[in-house]
Structures are given as C-alpha cells and as structure tokens.
Amino acid sequence: MIDIAHIHPMLVHFPLALLPVGLLFQLAALLRGGSIFERSCPAASGLSLLILAALGAVAAAVFGDLAMDKAIELGFSENRLETHEELGITSAVLLTALAAWNGWWFARDCRCPKLAWLTWATGLGVLFLILTTAWFGGELVYGLGVNVSRGG
Q1: pTM, to two decimals
Q2: DSSP letters of the chain?
Q3: Which segments in the chain show pLDDT lower than 70?
C-alpha cells in the first residue's frame, strides 16, 4: 500500500503544470485582442485549467499537512517544515481565489481589457508564489531527505 506521505509529492505537480498552461491560454486570448473572461476557446480553456490547478493545490495542501505530521514523527524539525507549509496553504488559497475571481467575471462575459490584464498579471504572481513553494519543498526532500530518509 502506498504511504500517505507520498501522495503529497504526486499532487503538487498538478498546479505546477496546469497553472502555467492556463496562463498561456489566457495570454493567447489577450494577445488576440480579446479578454480572459469572454466566451472563447482560449479563455474557457485557461479558466478550466485554473480551476483544475486550484483543486490540485487544495488537495496537495491537505496531503501536505498529513506528510508534515509523518515527517515530524520521523524526527524532522518542525521549524524547517513550517515555511513550506505556510507557503503551500497561502498558494492554495490564492490560487483558489484567482480561479473564483476568473470564474466570476467569465460568467458575466466581462470585456474590460484592463481588468483582464491585471487579473492575468496577478496569475503570474500566484505562479511565482507556487514556484517558490515548490523550491522550499524540493529543499526539504533533496536537501534534508524529508519523508525519504529517517529524521535528523
């Protein structure tokens, strides 16, 4: 049976892959002179990918909490884990808020270019936060061996 702590690293790849692709679809809509909130294939695809990325981020945060509990049981320092946990929860919340915001304006078929570009730029900020979170997670696994080796 799979170790519950190993589900978290599987799930984190969904927002890491889906958010940038969703932002690329939105950029395509914007560069065509449209909006990320209009009824077009690129805009709808971008929104769908943002929603899937947000769901993946929430699932990763839930299983990350379980993985953290196991890491503490194995003897890893809670202080080193907390930064990654806080960034992960913040990333999941902001990505979910971004997806909801996009969905709200998409449902209204909003054509405001300034709002669309500002929302897209906000998505880039969320992507940067998720990449930062991933870097800290990588340091935990590859630097300290969290949930790969015994605690130190």
Answers
A1: 0.93
A2: ---GGGHHHHHTHHHHHHHHHHHHHHHHHHHTT--TTSSSHHHHHHHHHHHHHHHHHHHHHHHHHHHHHHHHHTT--HHHHHHHHHHHHHHHHHHHHHHHHHHHHHHTT---HHHHHHHHHHHHHHHHHHHHHHHHHHIIIIII-TTTS---
A3: 150-152
